[in-house]
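Regression report. Comparing outputs from two consecutive submissions.

Submission 1:
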Amino acid sequence: MTEEFDRLVEQFERFQENTRRAESRLADYDGMRERIADLEATAHSPGRDVTVTAGPGGSVKNIEFTDRALQQSPQALSATVMATLRTAVAAAARQQAAVVQEFVGDDMNVLDQVLQTQSEMLGVPVDQLTADLPGSAPPRSEYLRGLYNEDDL
């Protein structure tokens, strides 16, 4: 009877440990969602006449124009807005991928995939794309550490 009881106790302890791990992961994902909801990326047009702030999921949070921007033709202003918008949204996507990468670990190279895709689509080297990733808060995962210079850490 004690052998059966010991087996049941062991199964119950494993169940409790699995429950604790699941609760911990859920708390981590809540933290990830909060960080993603708070992220912003701001881009400026080359002449700094147009400023666009983008958030997670490609959301546009703000667009600002200088008086000089409004002196452009509608077609030129539209092209400037669209180029600046694409830059801000791409930067926000990289930030979002960096947050996700931090939480999923090195098993899934989410950030690497985003960086590679954007590099190919934008014709910009990956090193240049990582420049706008947050350097003030060093990444926790070893995968992300490789994307930063030691001075940034």
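Submission 2:
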Amino acid sequence: MLQVLFPQPYQIEVSRLRQQLDEAHLAWVKAWKQRQAEFKLENIRFRHDPLWKKRIFSIQAAHDGDIWFWRATRVILGWGVASI
């Protein structure tokens, strides 16, 4: 029954087209990889900063409260919350 819908020559054409598509895809992948070699991914993450805990706008500095600005902010917020 399938031979009525898809005669033998069409199956050959489909496989030829599929082969051409695969060849074109492999050529594209090869060209894409060659273009990607120009770019270097040195480090996706941020550079390491040894003083990151001591920076004034660091989230960790705000959490630790080692900097006078964040200590003052905690005191002011504490008084504000206590007055409510």
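Expected: both submissions complete independently.
Actual: both completed, but the second showed a warning that disappeared on reload.
Relevant detail on submission 2: Residues 52-84 form one domain.
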